[in-house]
Design goal:
The complex is a heterodimer of chains A (about 180) and B (about 375). Chain A is an alpha/beta fold and about 180 residues long. Chain A contains 5 helices and 6 strands; from the N terminus they run E-H-E-E-E-E-E-H-H-H-H.
Chain lengths: ~180, ~375
């Protein structure tokens, strides 16, 4: 079987949970099914709240050796609309937390802030956008995502984050 | 066995938990901090029955580890970068005292300029400290070496401290698939530590003594031979590891596509995997590319290097350090090993990843392309500011 690899870059600000989302998605894929591999890592360095940060997830049907940063992502996920450069991505699809329809090729908007505010009570959109991503990637259905949430989030946060993830996943899946 | 998705630091902490050290003494430093945090949590939660000793510095961390090992128990410590350099005075004490301490080092840049990111300048500067030095490629190997290192270090023919190096951030902070063994499996592989090299009221011995000009060489020779003996201990330990855990390791080095390779990258640590990916890609185009991964820098695998590179036409040693005024430490050692071995390859040195600089697929591809011209220089990747 030829290797299938999907590479994701997460764009967020310190405190928005970009790396947590990168880990949830990696764990969901790696632990959800046999023969699946993932790698998740942040843009390394000191953590500063509010500063732009990136995180990376690689998913594959073969073991992953390349630990370098993702330069040609299949998906770019923007947790913070202010970080989106408002142009079509050079590679892959951009998934943007925004209520605005940008009308750009390869850009999909989803109002994650609204959904997070209404269901979580805070505008933290990392798990919402993980659910949005899940609707595009085989192996990241809500059942797999729940494995990722269990692996990466403390018990008190799991239920509501899983609920918001499933909601985002199903809303996106309907639109596709 | 439990499937997990954890970082290199977390994987290593799991391996140490399973190895049951009686004492953990450590001082936190980025990017090592998480392994120590996890172990302290395990001790607090009762998952690990160990004395976790908060010390005030790395010098004290190693001094404490030496004291505990001299009391006859299994010990663990961990450090990185400036911390390793601060404990440098104590490293030969541990080695000369023949205390089989296991230490994880998170490979990191050395100041100045101040930099918390990964490279191999710290550990490779301590190559002559008397410690076995191992460089892990991924989190699974790191975890497995947390367990295997004690078997090798504590073997009575070896009795030498063991440093397991994990590339800072690229390995310590990257989350990936790991199989965590069961305690029963590890207990059947790794017996409790027993030694006569200890403070014992029933059989008192002189420890930590002076040896003047007449006898000093005998102790140093014995230390040298003990370290060399590890080369004979590693293969049977890996065979037994394979029988119990089902994972096969390749001894002092790991060769990838070397049988007929003409262009070879020699490297160490987690960038090795990327080099293997690139070699695989080049093979599709008929380029005879290969990779030699140095797993152990000490004891140095000179015989393995000689036989692996015998038919190579051009070799690049890729490493994340420089010995200022000369070349990379690994390059010098590889060249030295090849002298008189019959290898007629051209050999160059590429110093990359300093201060955490990303090493990409294209960087490695460019090295292989360059090898067609049989370069012999020492060069830096990223050396021309762009």
């Amino acid at each position: 079987m030829t290797e299938k690899r999907i590479e994701i870059v997460w764009h967020g600000r310190g405190g928005q949970g970009a790396f947590t989302a990168a880990r949830i998605v990696g764990a969901a894929y790696a632990l959800g099914k046999e023969g699946r591999y993932a790698m998740s890592f942040p843009s390394f360095g000191p953590e500063r709240r509010g500063a732009p940060v990136r995180a990376f997830t690689k998913l594959s049907t073969a073991p992953i050796n390349d630990r370098s940063q993702v330069s040609h992502p299949d998906f770019s996920v923007y947790l913070d609309e202010g970080l989106f450069p408002r142009r079509s991505p050079a590679s892959g699809i951009a998934l943007v937390n925004s209520k605005e329809d940008f009308g750009l090729d390869g850009v999909v908007s989803f109002d994650a802030s609204r959904l997070a505010q209404s269901m979580l009570g805070v505008p933290i959109t990392n798990t919402v956008m993980a659910g949005v991503l899940g609707s595009f990637v085989e192996g990241l259905d809500p059942q797999a995502l729940s494995v990722g949430v269990d692996a990466c989030m403390p018990p008190r946060l799991r239920q509501k984050n899983l609920a918001v993830m499933e909601k985002a996943y199903s809303e996106m899946a309907v639109g596709q | 066995m439990t499937k997990a998705f954890v970082s290199g630091n977390e994987a290593f902490a799991q391996g140490i938990r399973l190895a049951r050290p009686a004492v953990v003494s450590a001082y936190p430093i980025t990017p090592q901090t998480v392994v120590v945090e996890r172990l302290s949590e395990m001790v607090a939660d009762g998952e690990l029955d160990s004395n976790f000793i908060h010390v005030e510095s790395e010098h004290s961390a190693m001094s404490c580890a030496i004291g505990a090992s001299a009391a006859g128990v299994r010990v663990f410590t961990a450090t990185s970068s400036q911390g390793l350099l601060y404990m440098a005075e104590c490293l030969p004490y541990a080695a000369g005292g023949r205390f089989p301490i296991v230490m994880m080092n998170a490979d990191r840049s050395v100041a100045l300029p101040w930099n918390i990111y990964g490279d191999q300048s710290d550990s490779l500067s301590q190559i002559s400290s008397g410690w076995i030095q191992f460089y892990a490629m991924n989190a699974q190997e790191a975890l497995d070496m947390a367990i295997m290192s004690y078997r090798i270090a504590e073997d009575h023919r070896v009795s030498t401290p063991f440093m397991v190096n994990l590339d800072g951030f690229n390995l310590t902070h990257t989350y990936e698939n790991v199989d965590v063994p069961d305690q029963e499996q590890v207990d059947s592989f790794l017996p409790p530590y027993s030694t006569t090299n200890k403070i014992d009221l029933e059989k008192p011995v002189n420890m930590g003594f002076t040896a003047g000009p007449a006898y000093n060489v005998l102790f140093k020779m014995s230390e040298h031979m003990g370290m060399l003996n590890a080369r004979d201990v590693v293969p049977p330990v890996e065979d037994e590891f394979m029988r119990i855990f089902g994972r096969r390791y390749s001894g002092m080095v790991e060769g990838h596509l070397l049988e007929d390779a003409e262009l070879v990258i020699v490297t160490l640590g987690c960038v090795s995997g990327l080099c293997m990916d690139v070699a695989d890609r080049l093979r599709e185009d008929g380029v005879k590319a290969g990779v030699l991964r140095i797993r152990y820098m000490r004891p140095f695998p000179d015989r393995e290097v000689q036989s692996a590179l015998l038919n190579a036409k051009a070799v690049c040693v890729l490493e994340k350090d420089v010995s200022f005024g000369n070349a990379g430490v690994v390059f010098s050692e590889i060249k030295s090993a090849l002298y008189g071995s019959g290898c007629s390859c051209a050999i160059c040195n590429r110093i990359a990843g300093l201060g955490g600089r990303d090493i990409s697929f294209d960087d490695i591809l460019a090295i292989f392309e360059e090898l067609e011209n049989r370069p012999t220089d020492v060069g830096f990747i990223g050396g021309s500011a762009s």
